[in-house]
Amino acid sequence: MKFKSLFIFAFVALVGSACKESFLDINTNPNTLPTASPSFVFTNALNTTTTNMLGINETGEYWSGHWTQGNGYIISTTTFAYQFTNGDFNYWDSYYDNLQDYQYVIDNADANNQKYLKGPAKVMKALMFQQLVDMYGNIPYTEALKGGTVLAPKFDDQKTIYESLIMMLDEAIGEIKANPFASAFTGSDIVFRGNITKWAQFANSLKMRILIRQSKVAGRDAYIKTEINKIVTEGSGFITGEDVGAGGAFFYLATAGKLNPVYDRWGYDANGAKRALNNYPRLTQFLINSLKTAGDTLRMKRIAYANSGESSTTPGTSTLKEVSANYTGTPFGVSSGYLPANTTSLGPSLIVKGEYNRPYIIMTAAEIQFLLAEAKQRYSDVSLPNTAKAYFEAGIAQSFRTFGANTAGAAAYIGSKIDNYDWDASTNKLTAIATQKWIALTNFSGFEAWTEYRRTNLPVTPQSIQVPDNKRPVRLFYPNTEAGSNSANVTAQGTVDVFTTRLFWDVD
């Protein structure tokens, strides 16, 4: 009877509380989405950006000539014979989904008293759109990210988008400088931990990338020089001495799904077991031989492990002795004869067993220095304070640092008389800049390397063994998901040929 009385009392209490709290209120709209703090969305958006960039960076590593495929796997004709359709390489959907998160932060930061997130969110929004333009050309921009109000957004002109991104980054810098992070929310920023000076420097660095990308387009010189001078006048400067990275020891954990995404894909799982794709990427024969020829073995030994890969007993070192003879690159696109035991794999600059919590690099300091070097070389009258030579040599030094090599090795090339290494001895300064940038982007920024290859045609890398002619992709197809949901606007872009339909900055 006591139990029955308690049950009746509990039921009455539940019904009573339900009436007061609308526990059974069937008038609640189930289609109304819950709201989230912009700070939480921002953290997740930054983490999502790293996983999104992983895919296009891998494709770029291949198509820029840094990596090829290990022969322990069936050759991918999609990647290495360029036999792909609009059903392949769909980075579009994940990028726009990620952009929607940054837009949410921008739209809701003020109402939640988190204004300090608006500027950084705009920087990341500009980065995402810049990369989308560099993949696809014309894309939805002004009518994008409108949710259900615009279901079929129009496509905007790619050059116009580039100009708009410069203005967006100017706005972002103003908002960043005016709104310091609240100390309690610096943890929501997994890139700079709330350091607004570095966010402004990153914005300027990204502006330099967008501007120099257009440097071969006729009629753009005056615009580019004006914008570079505006950056100098603004005064925040550029990222120097460190890379732009997300996550790190404070964020990544030795738990499934919480590892650095590079480590998780090509390195090891949370328990230290090798991933199935550990032997998939191979450094190309062209890259390895080029480094050997220049005597650039310090960086080579950080870019790649010697043949047979990482030691199973001493993480971060090679199984074989680390001498040049034990580093063998794989010809691009070859499908047999180059097994893991006799070729080089991704090196300690990228993967070391147990180091699952390194930051994911979004932009390297070396790239920024080479952008400045090209700007000063092309436009000697811009107000950048250093010489092209000084920026070039700083770029090589920053590359050594990022790879984990002794930076004294960079200084050794000054006066070495080696073409494309020693500034004074290099016969073509722009070729030297492009070559050193290509090396510096290895392992970290494959998409940027492929994009720069399309712009400069440098270095002259071998064609895939799988391809009988010299045709190479210059862009991606619009994905079939967009063609299905926004067909009229996709069709309006005309017929896309991935071998001939160039982007506006790819003039030769």
From TrEMBL:
Establish whether keyword Lyase is in the entry: no
What's the superkingdom here? Bacteria
Signal peptide range equals 1-20
Give one Pfam family. SusD-like_2
> Which Gene3D superfamilies does UniProt cross-reference here?
1.25.40.390
What keywords would UniProt list here?
Answer: Lipoprotein, Signal
Matches recorded under InterPro entries: SusD-like_2 (IPR041662), TPR-like_helical_dom_sf (IPR011990)
Q: This chain belongs to which protein, by name?
A: SusD/RagB family nutrient-binding outer membrane lipoprotein
